[in-house]
Write a structure and sequence with these properties.
The chain is mostly helical.
Length: 162
């Protein structure tokens, strides 16, 4: 059961509806292409295929299946992403431990690999930002402008004394 929807309670589809719906999900949700795949369109204009495909998607039986599929897909993706992030973090911890406990020819642990594993764990946890940018008018820019002004004054005073 996904989001309160049970697959056994969904309406039965004809073989053409199943074929069209499966194609719709597997082709990037291109309704016209899915319709052409499942139904005879040889005597139809391009615009007619589009209209029929739109009608197909608005069919109450089909909308229930689309809702079920979408909810199921989001749950599967969410679970996979959460699992992958956790698994990746655990792997980084393990690799970090290996780097610190294994010794090179001089008997030293691989500190660089351990640091890299820590960095990757931090990035995975969104604790590090790749780039630090300063926007004009932000507090840091204003602070740095004051520092530069004071440095300029100190430099001027030093030059005056020389």
């Amino acid at each position: 059961m996904v989001n309160g929807m049970n697959i056994e309670n969904l309406p039965k589809l004809t073989s053409k509806e199943q074929k069209c719906l499966l194609r719709f999900f597997s082709n990037g949700k291109n309704a016209s292409e899915a319709y052409r795949y499942a139904y005879d369109y040889s005597k139809m204009k391009k615009a007619s295929v589009y209209v029929e495909a739109s009608k197909f998607l608005k069919n109450p039986k089909i909308t229930l299946w689309i809702e079920y599929y979408t909810a199921n897909q989001e749950e599967v993706i969410s679970n996979e992403i959460n699992y992958s992030a956790k698994e990746c973090f655990e792997n980084m911890k393990e690799l970090q431990l290996i780097a610190l406990t294994s010794k090179d020819k001089n008997g030293n642990p691989n500190i660089n690999a351990a640091i890299k594993a820590e960095e990757l764990k931090g990035k995975l946890g969104n604790h590090f930002k790749e780039k630090f940018t300063v926007e004009p008018g932000d507090k840091f820019s204003l602070f740095m402008a004051k520092v530069e002004a004071k440095a300029q004054k100190l430099e001027e005073k030093a030059n005056d004394k020389c």
